[in-house]
Structure prediction request, 327 residues.
Amino acid sequence: MGISFALGAFVAGMILSESEFCHQALHDVTPLRDIFGLLFFVTVGMLFDPNYVLAHLGQIGIAVVSILIGKAVILGGLARAFGYRNMAPWVIGLGMAQIGEFSFVLARSGLGSGMLSKNTYDLALTCTIVTMAVSPLLSTVAVPLGRFLRGKQKAAPAIKTFSLPDEALRDHVVVAGYGRTGRTVARVLRASGLPLIVVESEYALLDDITADGLPGVWADITHDEVLHAARIERARILVLAIPDRETVRSSVERARRLNPGLVVIARAVREHHVAELQALGVDAVVQPEFEGGIEMVRQALVRFQYDDAEALRVIGGLRKELYGETG
Prediction:
């Protein structure tokens, strides 16, 4: 296409991130990402010129403050214009107020083509480094600052922030996560005629939920507002098919607080997480990889012409080792 290698790699990464291979690709490139991220920030630090900063301290200060305030106001205002309320505009505005790292590529290209002077290039480079350095501090104060200013204002009316299903849900199943495990659970529940709603935090999977004809909420299951949107107070069962231990833990605690009689079925990421989830009060814990191995054992026993009672005894012993008496 005639574009540069760097820009081509950027475009290819954007395309790949929207494909079905994105999760595996991210897993494969994570070590390289960490190494190149380290090299990038070391290189940026080497480009920083303290003498230039001391000589142009006032100019840099005005530029940095203008950039941070300007970007925070613009991005926060855009977030508000798109319907986000409460803490979201503050987090988005202050969290993205810094100059992005891609500006190094643009500034270098401008200097090489003669469109930027050396002084302008040094100013842009210095402002980028400074804004990136203060970015963690801005992200830290975003929520406390937003809460402080919101406390000075009158309470705003509740707003609808989720795409809720039209039908009234009661005695239903809430399925959290629409990956391979959650997708199977949801399809079987629907085939059985049970009412359900799917909660998924990854926007790319929302189209799959809609295409499968299931009611869904795009949000993080660990928030009370999301649990309310899924009608957790009236639900009978919560199925946590999310492969993240901390998310499962937080979801169980919040859901049980809103609905003490809720039955919780959770996925264990690793075998040693089973005991932790059971201690948390999860009614049933399932470790998918272990269950897959159990089925392979059963198939092997069948081929060796074991009778059903003997096969069940062997499998029951394996399940008892992992799940305990409740397995």
User: Anything to note?
Assistant: Residues 118-151 form the longest helix (34 residues).
